[in-house]
Specification:
106 residues; mainly alpha; 5 helices; 52% helix
Length: 106
């Protein structure tokens, strides 16, 4: 899924931070697409955790989001958009469809 979103981000001309794991580019864009700007609020000045140093995923799963980010953002939502969210959701839907096509031999 992360790879599919990375490809979709590239196609949308966006850089995809390795550590975009919570409330970053992907999730904020998806929320913008699904729920609208009014539901998401202002995120343009949000600076989440983007260091992605060695062992960050272990810390993420051991300590949770707060172990990496005092503000609860692991990633960079500043370039999120409804259009990018649509691309991400489409990429994930295609990934799921491809999985079931293979698994169910359709």
């Amino acid at each position: 899924m992360v790879e599919a979103c990375g490809v979709a981000a590239s196609k949308a001309g966006l850089s995809w931070p390795e550590c975009d794991a919570h409330a970053g580019l992907y999730e904020t864009s998806a929320a913008l697409h699904l729920m609208g700007v009014e539901a998401v609020g202002d995120f343009h000045d949000v600076h989440g955790y983007i260091a992605a140093e060695a062992g960050w995923t272990d810390r993420f799963f051991r300590e949770g989001v707060s172990g990496l980010s005092a503000i609860g953002v692991v990633g960079d939502p500043r370039h999120a958009s409804p259009a990018a969210g649509e691309r991400f959701i489409e990429a994930i839907a295609q990934l799921i469809a491809r999985h079931f096509t293979i698994e169910l031999e359709l």
